[in-house]
Amino acid sequence: MADGAVDRVRVGVRLAPPVDVSAWLSEGAAFDAAGADALWVDLRTSPEFDPYVLVAALSAVTFRAELVLELGADPAGDRPRVVPTLAAISRGRLLLPADDSTSADAEPKATAAFGWESAPIPEGRAAWRETLADARQRGVPGLILPADPRLLDLLRNPDEEIDRRDLQLAQG
User: Fold this and answer.
1) Which of 27, 58, 122, 130 sits most deeply, having the most CB atoms within 10 A of its CB?
2) Could you report the per-residue pLDDT of 39-98, keeping only the tens digit for each?
3) Which of 9-18, 64-73, 108-117, 155-164 bottoms out in mean pLDDT, i.e. has the lowest?
4) Sign of CA dihedral 44, 29, 11, 163
5) What is the pTM of this model?
6) Which residues lie closer than 8 Å to 64 by C-beta, 6 or more apart?
């Protein structure tokens, strides 16, 4: 392996802020079941939702992915009381970046804090394999991609080249 290369590039999924909370939770559960290593939650543009409650609900419908909550300033000032509760609910899967003070418009500092890089959805499986190989070669520990049905298909069926225009995120 080249200097700095990693054995396996982890895959994080950046969930869009919820419009329909039930669908959002189902989407998170689907990516968790498909093998995503982390679910990135940034609710700074959705002040109508309590980020702690949503992450607690997400932890109840997922079982393996780490949950990365990007907060900026603590919205309720409850971090000392809430964080241990969320850590217990998520069975230790909750990660809060140490310096999470960027604006909602900027690239979150959490990405850099963990050494992960943001990436677009690759066009097909060959491009997916190239993206992972390039990240592995450069020593990038993880990629964060936007939640998308094509990514869900890549995670579920990494080697199957089939026409998946019918793919929709589904519950269950």
Assistant:
1) 58
2) 999 888 887 888 888 899 999 999 999 999 887 665 556 666 677 767 777 778 877 776
3) 108-117
4) negative
5) 0.73
6) 32, 93
Residues with Cβ within 8 Å of 27's Cβ and at least 6 positions away in sequence, in order, are: 15, 147, 169
Confidence of residue 2 (pLDDT cuts 50, 70, 90): low
Residue 27's alpha-carbon distances to 99, 161, 168, in angstroms, are: 27, 23, 10
Which amino acid, one-letter code, is at 23? A
Torsion of CA 147, 4, 114, 91, to 10 degrees: 80
| Residue 13 neighbours by CB under 8 Å, 6+ apart | 31, 36, 38, 39, 40, 65, 144, 145, 146, 147, 151
